[in-house]
Design a protein that fits this description.
This protein is of the alpha+beta class. Helix content is 25%, strand content 18%. The chain has 2 helices and 5 strands; from the N terminus they run H-E-E-E-E-E-H. Strands 4-3-2-1-5 form a 5-stranded antiparallel sheet. Strand 2 and strand 3 form a beta hairpin. It is rod-shaped, with a radius of gyration of 40 Å. The chain starts with 59 loop residues before the first helix and ends in a 6-residue tail after the last helix. 5% of the residues are buried.
């Protein structure tokens, strides 16, 4: 019988490790080459854009604060400003103003209290609505002005 060779011994036909063929895989510690990189952005590899692309867990609180600031300046602050202007306008209503309600009723203010507005929609036709339901000034040509003019006689 023949003696078995130790498992670490290479067969005599094998080439030395330094003479690997060019198509062989790179060693385990070497970085991959080409576009098939598998490292994540922000990892400790030699990626210069890792910190700029928001990689890592340390940037999450900063990004959250930045998102809240953007929402505040783009959505919340303009809405608060518009609401304040609307409230000031409603407080400055006076008799004779032509307004439109949120329901689309156009009329001239004939009476005011702290919470209600009395609108005259036609001659001797009055309705009482809440001040908060008055949504804006009436458009240029109003229904109240159109109904008070006399029709042409033939």
């Amino acid at each position: 019988m023949q003696a078995a060779a130790p498992p670490s011994a290479a067969p005599p036909s094998a080439a030395p490790p330094s003479a690997a063929p060019p198509s062989a895989a790179p060693p385990a510690g070497a970085a991959p080459t080409g576009s098939g990189s598998t490292t994540a952005p922000g990892s400790s590899s030699s990626n210069p854009f890792g910190a700029l692309c928001g990689g890592g867990q340390g940037n999450f609180p900063l990004m959250l604060i930045m998102m809240v600031a953007v929402f505040y300046f783009i959505l919340i602050r303009p809405q608060q400003k518009k609401q304040k202007e609307q409230d000031n306008w409603i407080k400055s209503l006076k008799k004779g103003d032509e307004v439109v309600t949120s329901g689309g009723v156009i009329g001239r203010i004939s009476g005011l209290t702290d919470t209600t507005v009395t609108l005259e929609v036609q001659e001797k036709v009055r309705i009482k609505v809440l001040r908060s339901s008055v949504s804006g000034k009436a458009p240029g040509v109003t229904a109240a002005a159109a109904t008070t003019t006399e029709p042409e006689k033939k």
